[in-house]
Amino acid sequence: KAGVTQTPRYLIKTRGQQVTLSCSPISGHRSVSWYQQTPGQGLQFLFEYFSETQRNKGNFPGRFSGRQFSNSRSEMNVSTLELGDSALYLCASQTSGSGNEQFFGPGTRLTVL
Amino acid sequence: AQRVTQPEKLLSVFKGAPVELKCNYSYSGSPELFWYVQYSRQRLQLLLRHISRESIKGFTADLNKGETSFHLKKPFAQEEDSAMYYCALRLGSSNTGKLIFGQGTTLQVKP
């Protein structure tokens, strides 16, 4: 099985712009979660989508949003970028059912100038 | 509030020495805990989970609800164990994808 893929791998934007990141889960996985990883804050949960619905949400401002498509692919969008949004954004997919493992993608490195 | 604490940012040991990576959690519900590992230039991957009670690559971790801890142990460290280790707590029901991570501990195993 192919692993979780994320595109693009690297992105450079300027303050005020918006950005869309994409995540393709492992085939058959219906849950996709997004995390922000920074040196100062570590790994922080953004949100989780399951069957095209947001199932869980972290403590991030409304500038961070996401969606999931019928094929389970997910996108996250950050509007009005700030310097502090520079981070590695990871997505993870898992099957439905209890106790299942999350499989992580390689991440998208976003730099905001 | 739910929290996962890994008190050590860096743990440096010699090859063959025992290793213990500490993890403490704060959670009012029934905890489900994991250890994830990230080797250099590789993606984050699951090492082990407490419900499995298994040993992976010689590592074990026992959930101690009284001390709210889930420390990762290995009796004899190998150089290939050098990596970043994250303790994580699953929030909510057991099929949810919401994980709270600790800050991570870098394990450095010296030859």
The Rg value of chain A, from CA coordinates, equals: 13 Å
Low-confidence stretches of chain A: none
Query: What is the number of beta strands of chain B?
Result: 11
> Average pLDDT across residues of chain B?
92
Global geometry of chain A: globular
Rg calc of chain B = 13 Å
The number of helical segments of chain A is: 0
What proportion strand of chain B? 35-45%
Helix content of chain B: under 10%
How would you spell out the order of helices and strands of chain B? EEEEEEEEEEE
Looking at the structure, what is the overall shape of chain B?
globular
Give the low-confidence spans of chain B: none
Oligomer: heterodimer
Major sheet attributes of chain B: 6 strands, mixed
Give the end-to-end Cα distance of chain B, rounded to a whole number of Å. 41 Å
Mean pLDDT of chain A: 93
Classify the secondary structure makeup of chain B into a structural class: mainly beta
Using DSSP, what is the number of strands of chain A?
Answer: 11
Helix content of chain A: under 10%
Task: Kindly describe this structure.
The complex is a heterodimer of chains A (113) and B (111). Chain A is globular, with a radius of gyration of 13 Å. Chain A has strands at residues 5-7, 10-13, 19-24, 31-38, 42-50, 53-57, 64-68, 74-78, 87-94, 103-104, 108-112. Chain A has 113 residues and is mainly β. Chain A has no helices and 11 strands. In chain A, strands 2, 4, 5, 6, 9, 10 and 11 form a 7-stranded mixed sheet that branches. In chain A, strands 1-3-8-7 form a 4-stranded antiparallel sheet, with no helix packed on it. In chain B, strand 5 and strand 6 (45-49) form a beta hairpin. Chain B is globular. Chain B contains no helices and 11 strands. Helices cover 0% and strands 43% of the residues of chain B. Chain B has strands at residues 3-5, 10-14, 19-21, 24-26, 32-38, 45-49, 60-61, 72-74, 83-90, 99-101, 105-110. Chain B is mostly beta strands. In chain B, the strands form 3 sheets. In chain B, strands 2, 5, 6, 9, 10 and 11 form a 6-stranded mixed sheet that branches. The interface between A and B is medium-sized, with 29 and 22 residues.
